[in-house]
Write a structure and sequence with these properties.
Order of helices and strands of chain B: HHH
CATH topology of the largest domain in chain A: Four Helix Bundle (Hemerythrin (Met), subunit A)
Number of strands of chain B: 0
Distance between the termini of chain A: 63 Å
CATH class of the largest domain in chain A: Mainly Alpha
CATH architecture of chain B: Orthogonal Bundle
Shape of chain A: globular
Helix content of chain B: over 70%
Oligomer: heterodimer
Distance between the termini of chain B: 58 Å
Largest sheet of chain A: none
Number of domains of chain B: 1
Number of helices of chain B: 3
Number of strands of chain A: 0
Number of domains of chain A: 2
């Protein structure tokens, strides 16, 4: 990955992702925090494209930037007298120290380890290979994932159902 | 000047740490969930980076794993946000430092 376009795209997308993630921490309005979160998701989708992962990038935009962020917005709107200030608890300093420690440890390990790098080019297309793997080698996890999604959907509906619906039985 | 595996791993590490800070330190339950989603994203980015750069007989297995992680994360988000709404209905707050029923 030596061509200038990829390098420039990588640094711009990384900056977008990390600055938006820091925006989620810093900004003092929860709705604005969700907007920064969506920006960060889109930045990660761009990084997937620089890694020639087209299917995963599209999935990221559809599910994270589309569905999950709308779910989060709904949760904020459905808790109207909740705290919108996006403040920290008393655990602010220990959490900051722990996050810095984790960042430095992971970064050190990433740089220090001698990874088994291959010299292959980027993938030409990924969607058909992923589809074949899902229905051949990983068919059991695939089916379990569908059951999990069904259970999660039913669980969410049952949890937020108003109490009057149960009294009416 | 070129981009290689370490660059992506460091971006993933920074993103994970920001998510960890959000999940540990934020007062609003929904903000905690946003931190967890950021951590999922960091891990997925690391998976895809390894899938692209590391020697392997089936290099696209990392992408398949990312698809599963995204599925489970979506299920987690739906359930957790339903719990947030339910918690708000019962306790009139979603501040995690005021939900202390198990503390004595």
């Amino acid at each position: 990955m030596d061509d200038t376009g990829t390098v420039v795209a990588f640094y711009m997308l990384s900056a977008l992702t990390i600055v938006s993630a820091l925006g989620v921490v810093v900004v003092r309005n929860l709705i604005h925090a969700v907007v920064f979160l969506i920006l960060s998701f889109v930045g990660v989708a761009g990084l997937y494209i620089t890694l020639s992962a087209d299917f995963v990038a599209v999935t990221q935009v559809l599910i994270y930037a589309g569905a999950v962020s709308v779910l989060i917005l709904f949760a904020i709107v459905l808790t109207p007298t909740g705290d919108r200030g996006n403040q920290e608890t008393f655990l602010r300093l220990p959490a900051l120290l722990l996050a810095l420690l984790v960042a430095f440890t992971l970064g050190y390990v990433a740089i220090d380890t001698d990874w088994a790098i291959s010299d292959r080019e980027g993938f030409q297309q990924t969607a058909s290979t992923i589809g074949e793997a899902l229905l051949d080698k990983y068919v059991l996890p695939f089916e379990i994932a569908s059951v999990l999604l069904l259970v999660a959907m039913m669980g969410a509906i049952v949890l937020v159902r108003p109490d009057s619906a149960m009294e009416g039985e | 000047m070129s981009v290689n595996l370490e660059h992506y791993l460091i971006v993933g590490a920074v993103l994970f740490s920001v998510g960890l800070y959000l999940a540990l330190a934020k007062r609003n339950f929904v903000a905690v969930l946003m931190g967890i989603e950021l951590m999922f994203n960091a891990v997925n980015l690391t998976f895809v980076a390894f899938s692209r750069f590391v020697r392997s007989p089936n290099p696209l297995d990392g992408h398949v794993f990312v698809v599963f992680v995204i599925t489970v994360a979506a299920a987690e988000a739906a359930t957790a946000l339903a719990l947030a709404v339910l918690l708000y209905r019962v306790r009139d707050t979603i501040n995690v430092d005021r939900i202390d029923l198990l503390k004595w």
